Amino acid sequence: MFVGETLTNIRLLHGLSRRQLASELDVTEQSIWQYENGYISPSLEAINKLRTYFHVQPKYFYSKSDLPSQINEQHIAYRSKVRNSRQKTKSETVYLEFLNHITNYLSSTINYPNNRIKKIKDDAINYKNNNAEQIEMDKIIEHIASEARKSIGLTNDHNEDLLFHIEKNGAFIFEKSFGDTVDACSTWSDADIPFIILGNMKKSAVRRNFDLAHELGHLLLHYKIDITDLNKKDYEQIEREANTFATNFLLPEKEFLSDLDAIGKISNPNAYIELKKKWKVSIAAMAYRAYTLKRMSYQQYRYFNSSLNRNNYKEIEPLDDQIIIMKPGKIRSSFQVLFEKEIRSVEDVLSYTKFELKLLAELVDIEEAFFERHRVKNRHSRVYDFVVGESGSY
């Protein structure tokens, strides 16, 4: 029997309204509504159209939805120029549910390192609760950022392998095309697993680092708050707090102040190029940090921003085309372990998801050729310890 909920989920995963899907399939919007709500079942011809369009197996529409429902749309934080529409947020929620479904599958056969980000989050909540009345929020955030940096294993002299360290300490990080209004988003699952989704539109490595730190800030500072219920002022406040966290996290005060001592003209954007190589942080962000640390006067900061505009550095900074953009590796490495150790096959994964290979590859942002190379026949059912190597290798 056709299960309407499966169509709703796959439609939302692709960000389509009922009207848009009806147009794509040359049926009425009323028909899509009836399919999803169980009033009528699609014809065999319609089901073939649906599975071909969405790249799912025939059994997908005849199996009860097994998405775990562990993602709450109210808790998804966005690094965005504008607030997301309700439809867009619902689509991202379902997208995260599918990713959570896949990570649950991987976690059932792979023993990942301890979820240290959960412990950092718990410590951050306790610190905020115990000090909210005595210490101003910026100082609280500064402390949490410093402790988080130490806890995930970053030294205080560079930001190499930032993405790797966040993945290693418990986060699942994916890439997705958000368009040009959203840079990233993050949330906790009901099982306290942190997810970060990065936009995969062309962006510099240093801006990606800031997106990562910003979303880590949301995960630690704004644990499961109802973001959809915030008014504009409160929403802008949590965005400022995430930015404050990111700045403190990426540029430790003592070490960065020492670096500023070596700069000739602190209001000259070009004076920060060598520091950009070291910290993998944008020139604009470093100057703002210098300003908030009172190493740059208001007049100097105004001059800096004028120079930034004159040099068109707000669009493209020096080294943006040279510093390598790091991609998430945890999921790819997990699949590689499963396939190479013959613990699971590609066919096992497709059977679990009820996807065709094209959709699986798109969802986890791994090229189809990777899965094609790892098709295996023999498989065993055992648990494998996921061992993370040194220097960012999985």
UniProtKB/TrEMBL annotation:
SUPFAM superfamilies: lambda repressor-like DNA-binding domains (SSF47413). Gene3D superfamilies: 1.10.10.2910, lambda repressor-like DNA-binding domains. Residues 7-61 form the HTH cro/C1-type domain. InterPro entries: Cro/C1-type_HTH (IPR001387), IrrE_HExxH (IPR010359), Lambda_DNA-bd_dom_sf (IPR010982), Rad_response_metalloprotease (IPR052345). Belongs to the short-chain fatty acyl-CoA assimilation regulator (ScfR) family. PANTHER family: ANTITOXIN HIGA1 (PTHR43236), BLL7220 PROTEIN (PTHR43236:SF1). This is Helix-turn-helix domain-containing protein. It comes from Oceanobacillus longus. The lineage of its organism: Bacteria, Bacillati, Bacillota, Bacilli, Bacillales.
